[in-house]
Each structure stands twice: as C-alpha cells, then as structure tokens.
C-alpha cells in the first residue's frame, strides 16, 4: 500500500511518514505542490495525505487538479484551519475527508483505513490462499494453526503477494508498492525479504506457497512442480 504525504512542515512530515511506515505502508513525501505533481506523475498511489497550506499550488488547488485529471486516489486533507468554510472548500475541491490539526495519530490511521476500504482498495479484509490467512485490518497472518511473526516490511510484502495471488509480480511492481519511491528495484533487498518470507511461511508446510519465476519475478500460490 503506497501513500504520498504532502506536507511542508518537516517535523509533521517526519511524524506522519514514520508512523505510516511502522504500519507497513510504503511512504513517499513531498513538501510543495509542484513536487507532489511530479510524484504522482511518476508513480501510482493508493492515498494522498494532503496539507491544505503547502507552497503553490496549495492543497485546495492541487486537489482540484488531481480530480480534474481523473485521479481516483483517496485524498485525506490535513489542515490547522478549522473554519466551516475551509472544510467545505476542501471537500468541494475533491477531498474524501478532512482532518484538523493537531490530531491523534490513531485517528489519522482509522480515517485512512476507512478511505481505502470505501475506494475498494481493501475489498476483502481477510485474504486466504490455501491455508494462509492474512487479516488486513490487524496486520496478522497465520499458516494453518501457526501464527506468523513478521516485521512491518515482511507483512507488507506478504500482503501484496497475497492480494495478487497466482500472478507473477516483477521487481519493479513489488518495489513500487512495498517500498518507497527512491528504492532501487534491482537491489538484492527484495531477494532477501523473499527468502525471509519463505522461511517464515513455508518452513513447516509440505505445500510451498512462495515461488521464484526465473527472469520474471515472484508468485504466491500453490503451483505444480512442472510450473517451476
């Protein structure tokens, strides 16, 4: 799940990004409207957390531009301006929700999850592949009767593979959705995490779920030996 945080206050930006990464989200940041436009032109995002008072174009103008260009991304607008007219302006510009600063981080997470569910990003709160179950709300996974102990990044990778079970996912697609924008898709880190997941998910099971497809990428699911 990839999130763009558009915020010009360095402390607030760091606070939000760090909290989201701890919850297994891949996070990119932008401090101006122009930088945000460049980010969204380069990569797809599941949601944008958008401060209203960023340097030009401001959050309201940026939100209107996103919608005018047909972007269906979930937009949560953040601002210290709490006047009713400001909230109305943000929603009329195309924001899906509006959160007043200062806020408690658990509320931001809850609103973000609600937006993603409404936009269909998480149509199935529990993903099942064979005897692997992933609860996308609690970020917990089990294989049979065994609870899987995962780091935030291991969980994010496993959820992405399971969401697209049966489809071969290339390095660039994985890095785009699980890591941040500056991540090198061809580094060895993806292989390292795939290897870790194999040890965690497949170590006590006869049926292996995580497979490497040479020259193509990785796939999660039950495969015949003839398939590789």
Structure characterization notes:
- The chain is of the alpha/beta class and 228 residues long.
- It folds into two domains: 2-118, 3-Layer(aba) Sandwich (Rossmann fold), CATH 3.40.50; 126-227, Orthogonal Bundle (Arc Repressor Mutant, subunit A), CATH 1.10.10.
- It is built from eight helices and eleven strands.
- The chain has helices spanning 10-22, 33-42, 59-68, 84-93, 105-118, 152-163, 171-178, 189-202; strands spanning 2-6, 26-30, 47-51, 74-79, 97-100, 126-129, 132-135, 140-143, 146-148, 210-213, 217-220.
- It has a five-stranded parallel β-sheet with strand order 2-1-3-4-5, sandwiched between helices. A four-stranded antiparallel β-sheet has the order 6-7-8-9, covered by helices on one side.
- Strand 8 and strand 9 form a beta hairpin.
- Helix 3 (59-68) runs parallel beside helix 4 (84-93) and helix 6 (152-163) packs across helix 8 (189-202).
- The longest helix is centred in the middle third of the chain and has 14 residues, at 105-118.
- The radius of gyration is 19 Å and the shape is elongated.
- The mean pLDDT is 87.
In the predicted model, the low-confidence regions spanning at least 5 consecutive residues are none
Q: How many domains make up the coordinates?
A: 2
Number of strands: 11
How much beta, percentage-wise? 15-25%
Count of DSSP-assigned helices: 8
Question: Structural class, please?
Answer: alpha/beta
In round numbers, the mean pLDDT is: 87
Q: CATH superfamily membership of the largest domain, which one? A: Response regulator
CATH structural fold name of the largest domain: Rossmann fold
CATH architecture of the largest domain: 3-Layer(aba) Sandwich
Major β-sheet profile: 5 strands, parallel
Radius of gyration, CA atoms, in whole angstroms: 19 Å
Q: Which series of helices and strands comes N to C?
A: EHEHEHEHEHEEEEHHHEE
């Amino acid at each position: 799940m990839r999130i763009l945080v558009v915020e010009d206050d360095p402390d607030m930006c760091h606070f939000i990004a760090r909290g989201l990464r701890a919850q297994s989200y891949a996070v990119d940041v932008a401090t101006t409207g122009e930088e945000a436009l460049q980010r969204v032109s380069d990569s797809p995002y599941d949601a944008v957390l958008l401060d209203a008072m960023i340097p030009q174009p401001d959050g309201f103008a940026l939100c209107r531009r996103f919608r005018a260009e047909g972007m269906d991304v979930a937009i949560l607008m953040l601002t210290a301006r709490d006047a009713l007219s400001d909230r109305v302006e943000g929603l009329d510009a195309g924001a899906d929700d509006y959160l007043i600063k200062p806020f408690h981080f658990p509320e931001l997470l809850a609103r973000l999850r609600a937006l993603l569910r409404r936009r269909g990003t998480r149509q199935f709160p529990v993903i099942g592949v064979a005897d692997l179950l992933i609860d996308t709300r609690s970020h917990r996974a089990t294989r049979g009767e065994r609870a899987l102990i995962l780091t935030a990044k291991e969980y994010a990778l496993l959820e992405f593979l399971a969401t697209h079970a049966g489809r071969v996912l290339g390095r660039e697609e994985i890095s785009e959705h699980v890591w941040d924008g500056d991540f090198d898709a061809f580094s060895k880190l993806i292989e390292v995490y795939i290897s870790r997941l194999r040890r965690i998910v497949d170590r006590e099971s006869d049926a292996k779920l995580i497979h490497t497809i040479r020259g193509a990428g990785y796939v999660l699911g039950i495969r015949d030996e003839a398939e590789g």
